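Need tokens for this chain, all 292 residues.
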Amino acid sequence: MARTVLLLCWSLVAACSAARPARPDVAPAAGPRLPLALKVVTFNVQDLFVASRRPERMRAIGRRLGALRPDFIGLQEAFDGDHRELLEAELERVSGLSYQRRYFPSGVMGSGLHVLTPHRVERASFWRYSRNGAWYQFRHGDFYAGKGAAMVRLGIDGVGSVDCFNTHCIASYPGASYREDRAVQLRELAAFVDAEATTPAPAIILGDLNASIRSPEYAPLVTGYHNLTAGRSLGRAGRIDHVLVRAYQGYGVTARDYQELWMGTDDLGEPLQLSDHAGLVITVELRPGGGG
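Here are the structure tokens for all 292 residues:
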């Protein structure tokens, strides 16, 4: 009986703590002037307490990103605030730009989602996924991270507004694939994009989906979306990190200058693996035309 009561309490807490997607209470922004090119990055930085050389890696990631001067950076597993500041300091020092930043707290550990951009942040919102694994699987941690999706509207001087999304879905573990949870999360991601991307232009979605394009749970992102990174990396057809664009009538989308960030240098200039994921960098070009 006591176990049943405890499980019911945890279920109520999880249900009540999840946000409810809704259309924003602000007027939609105007679409951007075209053509427009945005360099975007998705990077799971593996800033977990069990990971090694965390401060060094965060500084090294900041240096690599600073040299690229991206327009939009979506980080996952950026849990530690002090380490985020190390990365930000190197990013701004190397790039010579001032970056706006948004971290999205959630759950007990924090969502791990961090967004950086040299452009104005006109609005931001967060959706916590309704299914996030099991509360009793302490070693997995996804339940306590409160994983979800973050939205940021970029205001680009002289150009207009673009809606961008960053997400991290639940991982698979030995004996626990969490495929059903991930399927729910990706359906909620698609609904969140539909609700929040009110700029009349393509929306950019990126992050660690923990699902390849061949996975059944990836299905909500097939129709109406262009995956810009699938198939670009030799030998990694099953990649789980992605950059996508949701199509919009009257806009064409192309992508160029793809690269992966695996290695950097430590504080002494020695080679250093940045994370257990590659950072993905791609330039997204929006232009007139296209069938949506």
